[in-house]
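User: My instructor asked us to take a sequence, write out its structure as tokens, and then describe one feature of it. I'm not sure where to start. Here is the sequence I was given:
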Amino acid sequence: MTLKDLRPGESGTVTGYRGHDAPVRLMEMGLIPGTEVTVVRLAPLGDPMDLKVRGYHLSIRKREAADICVVKA
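Assistant: Let's start with the prediction itself. The structure tokens for your sequence are:
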């Protein structure tokens, strides 16, 4: 399952990334394996996603969320 598949109000734990290399930009924003993420809301057209990560809000595009593997909490 990817972060893109979670709906508002749902949570998951980051397990890794699709592809060969972890996206450094996403890791710098706190989306590292083992981190719990909650989808707060989606923009009116569905993109971007508003996430709660480590006590702060983060907005990312759905195409970036599709590369983040999660286990639903």
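For the description part of your assignment, you could build on this observation: DSSP finds two helices and five strands in the chain. Try explaining in your own words what that tells you about the chain.
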